[in-house]
Amino acid sequence: MPRILPSVRATTPIALADVDIADSFWSPRIETVRTETIPFQYHQLETIGHLDSLRHQRQDGDPVPHIFWDSDIAKWIEAASYSLVSHPDPELDARLDDVIALLASAQGDDGYLNTYFTVIAPEERFTDLRDAHELYCAGHLIEAAVAHHAATGKTSLLDVMRRYADLIGTVFGRGEGQIRGYDGHEEIELALVKLAEATGERRYLDLASYFVEERGTEPYFFDLEAERRGTPGYFGDQFSGEAHPGRTREYLQAHAPVRDQHEAVGHSVRAMYLYSAMADLAREQDDDSLLEACRELWQHLTTRRMYVTGGIGSSAVNEGFTRDFDLPDETAYAETCAAIGLAMWAQRMLRIDRHRRYGDVLELALYNGVLAGLSHDGQCFFYDNPLASRGGVGRNAWFDVACCPPNLARLLTSLGSYAFATGDAELVVHVPVSGTVRVAAGDETAVVEVEADVLGTGRVVLRVTEAPRQPLTLTIRIPEWSRRMTLHVNGEPLDLDDADVLGADGYASATREWQQGDELVLQLDTAPRRLRPDPRLADHAGQVSIARGPLIYALEEVDNGKDLHMLALPQGADLQIHEIDGLQGVEAHGQRSTLPGHGLYRMSAPVIEGAALRLVPYFSWANRGNGEMRIWIREC
Amino acid sequence: MPRILPSVRATTPIALADVDIADSFWSPRIETVRTETIPFQYHQLETIGHLDSLRHQRQDGDPVPHIFWDSDIAKWIEAASYSLVSHPDPELDARLDDVIALLASAQGDDGYLNTYFTVIAPEERFTDLRDAHELYCAGHLIEAAVAHHAATGKTSLLDVMRRYADLIGTVFGRGEGQIRGYDGHEEIELALVKLAEATGERRYLDLASYFVEERGTEPYFFDLEAERRGTPGYFGDQFSGEAHPGRTREYLQAHAPVRDQHEAVGHSVRAMYLYSAMADLAREQDDDSLLEACRELWQHLTTRRMYVTGGIGSSAVNEGFTRDFDLPDETAYAETCAAIGLAMWAQRMLRIDRHRRYGDVLELALYNGVLAGLSHDGQCFFYDNPLASRGGVGRNAWFDVACCPPNLARLLTSLGSYAFATGDAELVVHVPVSGTVRVAAGDETAVVEVEADVLGTGRVVLRVTEAPRQPLTLTIRIPEWSRRMTLHVNGEPLDLDDADVLGADGYASATREWQQGDELVLQLDTAPRRLRPDPRLADHAGQVSIARGPLIYALEEVDNGKDLHMLALPQGADLQIHEIDGLQGVEAHGQRSTLPGHGLYRMSAPVIEGAALRLVPYFSWANRGNGEMRIWIREC
């Protein structure tokens, strides 16, 4: 794909065609998405009415198209396209062509394309940017178009979405007669950057930049819009009152121009999509002040408002952020899509500001906050992800959860682009995933086999199986979670105190003329460890969470009985690795206390007995019944 | 006062005229109410516009009378009347006459009396029972009338309110042309019972019974009312949507007939006033099923939804109850008025079902949940009472807090009637308060001097200073908080294992022909103690609160530095009594941990150092700056 502007600092996510994932942990999950999730998602589009709406074959009594429907179609196309790259499938390819043809047929002569407004409210087009998700849907369709084009080389959807993007570019802007606004739910901004990358057309980048820069300026667009419209808007009835979070400027990150935003606020998915676009634009436009804003937001989010799982957005009320250090476990919202959005933002920060602070959080979110959303069988989903449960909380069938399953599908089918990046004759491993990667080195192609065992032994091998003649750089993130590590090339140790080997960014590199079979071997420390919260997380004072490698662990009732909060872990207790029901578990000698007597507040002393604490990875919880769960354990 | 029906089980709160409180703890607080609160409250009535509204001297631009205004006037009259009993004050007496004359002049020919509806919306009388607090205001005026009559013997206000009550009795009921409804905010029910007691008129009791029995029946009155009215009601705009707590039936305890209510729900003050009236009616009507409902509600509330301070109602959203064991500290609502309401209910339960389960909670609420509402200087008030603060939370000047200061004033000026009750030749001490009490014994009057030091030595002396010829029973509650106790008459021990001495109800009695100077001496154990929460209070697992006698203790920043949650109390640590800034403090050798490093989740081990933990009574917090505070302390 052509790049608009060169950026000396950047590496690029690897093209999906250049990576074959063969990972004992990830591959089965990706395969489930391919064989279960994507077909089921299509089935939903057919049966709920999305496709019939495009076919203009709706009957009286058919469900009214939801304003999100186009994004459902889009995410299916995007995931299906990614899947085609690793698993060519003529049937799926043809099905994609059919759906795209439907989309094309539903497009207006002027390029407009939106199921809800076309079917239900054609007069109201572009009058309710705050609530109606109109450009949000367009953004997802653009992402789908770029993915489909990259996967198949076909321009069928790309052409459709270029036409629509061109219309949007004429409707919105600062010119005479244009709407000087932006969408209430960010998404089109990052999509337009992708479209610019895919087409080499600068104007899409400029439009993305316009949307981002206009946001939060005065006079406040959504006030002007509401005045013009004269109605309370799509969510008017539900989101009533000035004080409702859905009506605050912070909710949609429009409380200040983006460079003046210093804290992650509001609806968390919206925030992640905005910050992703900001990072994209900082890179493409070489814009240091925008990068600085991103860094500040990242620092704020990850040091004050992020769960230990990489989940973000603690409140269901606004589906988003509340106050610093307000991270309740049992009522955690921590939407799966928000953790996915965090991974998206991290991926983009790594393109312009490579540092393990992003890679560590990317890995954390993938293995915990994101993956917890998905049941082992791939059939059930968490929309919100509590970090503690008193029991009775479980994943729902897809049918009940609209946005997260397709978002999970597109993330997992494009996992390679999060795990690996390439620079000039360089392979960068952000997240070690086993498989084979192809990297351009001048006019040659190097092939590197990755064997990653970060969940087990901690050994990561990068084996050059096809060596270029010219030097190739192999770069890998050294996660902060590893207290000890060694790096060897063919058995020879590299000095990790040498800044040329391990940079200040936490990435270790070896550049040389590799021979076929040469190995760069990173040995990480995957002994279980205790994490303790910043003292400002007052509710967790004196508590620890257990981690191993990138995984956060949890106690479940099925392994430990009820009243998990009555368990405690002695400060000196060994943390042993121990298989539990086929899961990589951790076990320790702990204590269980009971309190004799009755009444709400008792004078009796607790009775303390030894108890084995048996922990399993957090992502795996609620797969063996919906009993109690908790991550934070009292230390005694 | 005549009683309507005899009840063999009941004792009666002492008449205020029969008790002179002279207590080193309570008297200064009551004196502050007399010299500061009551005059200031009157000043408010004059300056805000309450009295001018009665005078019909309102000008354009005057504030619209608030629907609560009559209750403000009423609570002032009630507190001022109680105060007159212990402190005759001709000036206050005359001022009361003036205000009562204004009320009389504002009464309609038909007996109707309500400032808001008379001045603002005369057409809307009795059309918005759900929101408009119309009968609630009437109830408070009735309570005021009864108090004024008891204090002065005058019937000026009692006559006014009898007329109004008679009107209400014709308007409401199950007869032809009557409104078959009840008020959204309970209050008139318990007031009518008082009016029946004061006048000996059975019809007021019947009216109270009608309101209580009608509540929560089908068809649902407030739906019918809203339909008839055709408008959303007084709070229509603020309380919108079916799901808003102010629109749920539970919010106003109308989700079921009262005998089918098994859990304390909804707005907590409303609940307490209803349950108080239910207890009154169970007593007056000798109604076992109503008593059983009260007992069940009490059991539910005090074992599942009560803070360790006796505060109740954990959520600001509905000013009330949420779920069992949902008692967050920092966001605790625990309205001062709700703790007062709990004391009112306890007082009434003790009249029909004497047991220390009520006396213990009465005492707890008085010393903690209620008293925390008042600053040491009597000038500032907590409306809601958090049980933990990260700093910056303090009491507000009265001006900002409408309902709690007058409610505190009437409670403190009538404290004697909560502390003492009398039966047939019997003095019952529910809450030991120092002073002198007169008790009828046949045609004689016994005088008993009480010396109570429950906050210090734990010694409570009941000294008979005027002895009747006939036997007199001295009865005192043995609080469950005392782990050891002795009871002596003139130095001779009584056997507390003897059921004739210490009953199953937790009250100890001695009946004899007392001689002048005879003493019943109860020695309680006031050593500081640790309270541990029911294991279902999961957030406080492994934590303790410190209590001494009836007081709950708290850590404050001013004594312990910041980050109180980083302090811990070893299991074996001695709890020493230790004066802190003139307060009865408790001190212990504890630990403070700090966590080196940075980041939200750290691998570093905590550094633990010795630290003195210095605790002060919870009620006294936020009198020496508005720093951090917490009650629950991690045990280590």
Discrete helix count of chain A: 17
Query: Could you list the spans of chain A in which at least 5 consecutive residues all have pLDDT below 50?
Result: 1-9
Q: End-to-end span of chain A in angstroms?
A: 56 Å
With strands numbered from the N-terminus, the spatial order across the biggest sheet of chain A is 2-8-9-10-15-12-13
What does the model show?
The structure is a homodimer of 636-residue chains. Chain A starts with 11 loop residues before the first strand and ends with a strand. The first copy, chain A, is built from 17 helices and 25 strands. In chain A, 35% of the residues lie in helices and 20% in strands. In chain A, α11 (268-284) packs parallel to α13 (336-352).
Task: Please name the defining characteristics of this protein.
disordered N terminus, seven-stranded antiparallel β-sheet, alpha+beta, 636 residues, Immunoglobulin-like, six-stranded mixed barrel, homodimer
How is this structure best summarized?
Two copies of one chain form a homodimer. By secondary structure, the first copy, chain A, is of the alpha+beta class. Chain A is built from 17 helices and 25 strands.
